[in-house]
Amino acid sequence: MLQIKEASIVYNETVLFSDFSMQLNKGESACIGGDSGRGKTSLLNAIMGFVPLHSGKIIVGGLELNKSNIHNIRKQIAWIPQELALPNEWVHEMVQMPFDLKANRGIVFSKDNLFSCFEELGLDNDLYQKRVTEISGGQRQRIMIAVAAMLQKSLLIVDEPTSALDPISTDKVLAFLHKQATEHNTSILAVSHDKRFATGCKTQICL
To answer: What is the CATH number of the domain that holds 49?
Structure first.
């Protein structure tokens, strides 16, 4: 599903990493760890086409990333950044916004499916009617993980999915993502400093 071949990223003449290669098959999960400032988030942004590689290749679903096919590649990916800067006042607006994006307009939003995901992730249904400012960072993370799963993409990319969660909630997220991989054949790539989360993924990668 994802191949990265001898990739390097250079920012202001500083080499974040070089000659990095990995492969992620369908239905597999991998967690990238390592020291801060090594370019882990930049790598995720590069897969989405937001940051250019200095050298190397990124191949998603058999397509090599380039300017001409970036839209087709993004249609295969659900992406959850660490900092969610969504311009919504209400949670019900926040969860429906991804379904309005051009890449997702063929996917129907279902409140019943959302609440089913909420239950698996340890979230209360009444969060749906709250203001975004009324919910915690950990609740926001899990809500967007639920939404990402509902998009039914082939590749789910998530940056620090459990940074605001306690161990019990972390285990619920791991179980939920494991179900997406095994039952829906979703490939999952995460960046995390959380050792509990990392060890729950099939593969651990140090960048």
So the answer is: 3.40.50.300
